[in-house]
Amino acid sequence: MFLWIIKRDLLLAVRRRSDVLITLFFFVIVVSLFPLSVGPEMNLLRTMAPGVVWVAALLASMLSLNRMFSSDYQDGTLEQMLISPQSLSFLVLGKTLAHWLVTGLPLVLMAPVLGIQYDLPGDALFVLVISLLIGTPVLSLIGAIGAALTLGLRGGGVLVSLLVLPLYIPILIFGSGAVEANMAGVDFAAHLSLIGAFFFVSLVFAPWVAAWSLRVSLE
Amino acid sequence: MLQGIEVACVRGDRELFKGVNFSLEMGGLLQVSGPNGSGKTSLLRMMCGLSLPASGEIRWNGVSIGTLSEEYFACTTYIGHLAGVKDDLTVTENLCISSAMAGFEISSDDASNVLNTIGLGGREHLPVKVLSQGQRRRVALARLLACNTTLWVLDEPFVALDVAAVQLLREILERHLQQDGMVVMTTHQEIDINASLITQLQLS
């Protein structure tokens, strides 16, 4: 059941590749704009790299959020999920996982390539990838709540950014903080542990809250 | 047995209906009728657990459906105005996935049998977006045959169907009722369904 929903969403993503590519290209372009505009000053670029990559990842994952439930809402498949004999929280978790595989994972894989533009050393690139790997699922999980709450509202796309971006701030701080700490030669494990803690808390609560919001949105 | 006790529905600050009582036995058909905007769809959505009545209660075998939730969902199939099919998936994929979500995993052989019966034979591998409105409707209705549920809640099931499909759906409904199934439906068309137990519910 859980696997069915993931399989379905991945199949849909394969059929509509443009949606996936838009998110990825947005990320690539935003990150690449900074070295072009700031100029080739290595020290400056290295300092701002973690922040820029993380902000771009945040905005890119934001971009795909309102598609998470809206197409299912419009064609009535969401209605069918609500009255399926499976727990709705599990379905939402499955959809969130599929969303992350389609929009979050490509960002994680692309990040080291983009990091080279900023002259990040090898171990900093590694920490960047690890922090994104733990952090981007949290973005999808928290985003699911925002997407469920704004479902069917006019201007939902803008509203979801206003709702969700403030909640992303802790992830942004600790995510880019981990990379900065590594570059400053300080231990970065605490930052990663904190992102991990956010991940587990949102893994437990976000699907449940999103499922509840979906029921309210569809009533 | 499906039972409604003093069910009321409020949309915004307008009361659509109140004090609606109904009861549906095994093998029974409940036809909900009323003018546009009288709350037929709202009542059907309450019956399948998508929304809650403003007051009153809907019971399945004596227990409120709100308490039963997933247990109740396992024995109902709802087909509403929206077909609930994905445009980008093929007919077979749609049927297999929607049945699996309803808790009935079917093989692709079963799926092609069902699709033949419903008149979509030969179109199994077409994406739904190239089908006509009536054919999409058939894809949705195929779920009734694929899922072995007791209670069918159908909102205007005959819309967009051609004469042959209307006849086919009538036969499917009659067979389901003979096998002690239960059907709740709304329709504006005059369709005679032979069933031993037909209840009319008029919303004004």
- The total tally of domains of chain A equals 1
Which fold name is given in CATH as the topology of the largest domain in chain B? Answer: Rossmann fold
CATH domain class of the largest domain in chain B: Alpha Beta
What's the CATH architecture of the largest domain in chain B? 3-Layer(aba) Sandwich
Q: What summary fits the major beta sheet of chain B?
A: 5 strands, parallel
Strand arrangement, major sheet of chain B: 6-7-8-3-9
Shape of chain B: globular
Shape of chain A: elongated
Question: Topology as H/E string of chain A?
Answer: HHHHHHHHH
Q: Describe the biggest sheet of chain A? A: none
Strand residues, percent of chain B: 25-35%
Strand content of chain A: under 5%
How far apart the termini of chain A lie comes to 24 Å
Low-confidence stretches of chain B: none
Number of helices of chain A: 9
Can you count the helices of chain B? 7
Largest interface: A-B, 25 and 29 residues
Low-confidence stretches of chain A: none
Q: Mind telling me the CATH superfamily name of the largest domain in chain B? A: P-loop containing nucleotide triphosphate hydrolases
What does this structure look like?
- The complex is a heterodimer of chains A (219) and B (204).
- Chain A is mainly α and 219 residues long.
- Chain A has one domain (2-218).
- Chain A contains nine helices and no strands.
- In chain A, helix 1 (2-15) packs across helix 6 (88-117) and helix 3 (42-63) packs parallel to helix 7.
- Chain A is elongated.
- A five-stranded parallel β-sheet of chain B has the order 6-7-8-3-9, with helices on both faces.
- Chain B is built from seven helices and nine strands.
- Classes of the chains: A mainly alpha (219), B alpha/beta (204).
